[in-house]
């Protein structure tokens, strides 16, 4: 009897066919991206709402791997209002970081490509579509208008350059015109003091390995804020830090956001951090937004079964339980996603209709949206629920 092939097994011929097809698709994307002297009209756009700093509109970001196409971000739409903090929450692999990297154009290329949708950045007098922006123009935006605090401070800094040189470089690149080395150094010292580093003159001359994790994270925040950006992406900035340092970093971010009047897109697993920091919450699952609303709506009235499961799985002070709740099952394979609701196989609240195609978004209030069949009947009866 012939041996049964393991699930996900690819023959050599099939792997070669996939690799050849991937090269054809990614080469077309790269050719378009590497063009020189692209006219501004190609990436100029209009904000749907001028009160938003960033608008993600039907974003699709795929990775063309040898095993197939991974749909990391599969039709994501949400807004980051000016001066507000939007928390993006979900489990590992749901597409949070890839969404932010799509905005920064820092995807691992040529495998990672934005294949559809718009990311509109509000520049004040005009708006740019970041998915169409050429590399040379992107250099002026990245760090200047949009900056990112990366997930791991231990590896974000270059180990062979002193702290001062690394922060100086950001200022010199974007705001260095007409400034002397002394001016740039003074600004760096000012930034280090602003993020709560007491010995700023000493830290300026140190290498990253001479600093603790919390100090390195502060340096990363100083680099991100060097040019007073309009949008700050904080990609799990407190993951590697202990609880007391975590609280200090959150306070710091909150105060600095108000000081430079910028917007924050805060990516995290931690619902406690979201409750403390965010004005709006976006819940992602398997590359899609399953629920979004104000922080009060999401925490006091979670609508999607996945959000309800996340809330139930966190420990509560003063409440004693034998075992914390965990959502059953596992995330579907991103290469072969089902054609029904991605959460259906793990859902404990299935209703009639769940076996149909992926649910569309239902509006529960002016700011609260959910993608779930449980709200379809109420929607049909009177629009809002």
Report, as a whole number of angstroms, the end-to-end distance. 58 Å
Helix fraction bin: 25-40%
Give the strand order of the largest sheet, numbering strands 1, 2, ... along the chain. 7-8-9-4-10-11-13-12
- Which architecture of the domain at 147-232 and 241-262 does the CATH hierarchy give at level 2? 3-Layer(aba) Sandwich
Give the averaged pLDDT, no decimals. 88
For the record, what is the CATH homologous superfamily label of the domain at 147-232 and 241-262?
Answer: P-loop containing nucleotide triphosphate hydrolases
Report the CATH C-level class of the domain at 147-232 and 241-262. Alpha Beta
Strand percent estimate: 15-25%
SSE pattern, N- to C-terminal: HEEEEHEEHEHHHHHEHEHEEHHEEH
Number of strands: 13
CATH topology-level fold name of the domain at 147-232 and 241-262: Rossmann fold
Question: How would you summarize the topology of this molecule?
Answer:
Layout: H1 12-33, E1 44-45, E2 52-65, E3 68-81, E4 85-89, H2 96-104, E5 112-122, E6 127-129, H3 135-141, E7 146-149, H4 153-156, H5 163-175, H6 181-194, H7 200-204, H8 213-225, E8 231-235, H9 243-260, E9 263-268, H10 271-277, E10 280-285, E11 288-294, H11 295-300, H12 305-312, E12 362-363, E13 369-370, H13 376-382
Parallel strand pairs: 4-9, 4-10, 7-8, 8-9
Antiparallel strand pairs: 1-6, 2-3, 2-5, 5-6, 10-11, 11-13, 12-13
Helix pairs in contact: 5-6, 6-8, 8-9
Summary, kept brief:
With 385 residues, this protein is an alpha/beta fold. It contains 13 helices and 13 strands.
């Amino acid at each position: 009897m012939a041996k049964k092939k393991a699930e996900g097994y690819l023959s050599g011929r099939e792997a070669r066919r996939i690799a050849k097809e991937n090269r054809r698709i990614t080469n077309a994307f790269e050719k378009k991206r590497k063009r020189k002297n692209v006219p501004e009209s190609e990436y100029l756009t209009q904000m749907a709402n001028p009160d938003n700093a960033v608008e993600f509109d039907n974003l699709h970001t795929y990775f063309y791997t040898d095993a197939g196409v991974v749909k990391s971000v599969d039709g994501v739409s949400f807004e980051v209002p000016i001066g507000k903090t939007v928390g993006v929450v979900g489990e590992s692999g749901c597409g949070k970081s890839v969404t932010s990297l799509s905005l920064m154009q820092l995807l691992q290329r040529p495998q990672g490509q934005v294949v559809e949708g718009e990311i509109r950045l509000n520049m004040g007098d005009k708006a740019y579509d970041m998915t169409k922006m050429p590399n040379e123009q992107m250099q002026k935006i990245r760090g200047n208008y949009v900056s990112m605090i990366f997930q791991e401070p231990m590896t974000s800094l270059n180990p062979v350059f002193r702290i001062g040189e690394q922060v100086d470089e950001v200022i010199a690149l974007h705001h260095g015109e007409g400034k002397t080395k002394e001016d740039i150094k003074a600004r760096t010292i000012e930034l280090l003091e602003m993020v709560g580093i007491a010995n700023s003159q000493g830290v300026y001359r140190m290498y990253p390995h001479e600093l603790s994790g919390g100090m390195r994270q502060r340096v990363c925040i100083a680099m991100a804020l060097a040019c007073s950006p309009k949008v700050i992406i904080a990609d799990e900035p407190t993951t590697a830090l202990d609880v007391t340092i975590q609280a200090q970093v959150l306070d710091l971010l909150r105060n600095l956001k108000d000081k430079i009047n910028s917007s924050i897109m805060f990516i995290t697993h931690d619902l406690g951090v979201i409750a403390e920091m965010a004005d709006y919450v976006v819940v992602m699952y398997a590359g899609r937004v399953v629920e979004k609303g104000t922080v009060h709506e999401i925490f006091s009235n979670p609508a999607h079964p996945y959000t309800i499961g996340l809330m139930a799985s966190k420990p509560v002070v003063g409440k004693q339980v034998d075992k914390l709740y965990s959502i059953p099952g596992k995330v579907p394979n991103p290469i072969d996603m089902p054609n029904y609701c991605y959460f259906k196989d793990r859902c404990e609240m299935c209703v009639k209709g769940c076996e149909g195609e992926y649910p569309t978004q239902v509006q529960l209030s002016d700011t609260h949206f959910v993608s779930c069949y449980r709200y379809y009947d109420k929607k049909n009866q009177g629009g809002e629920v």
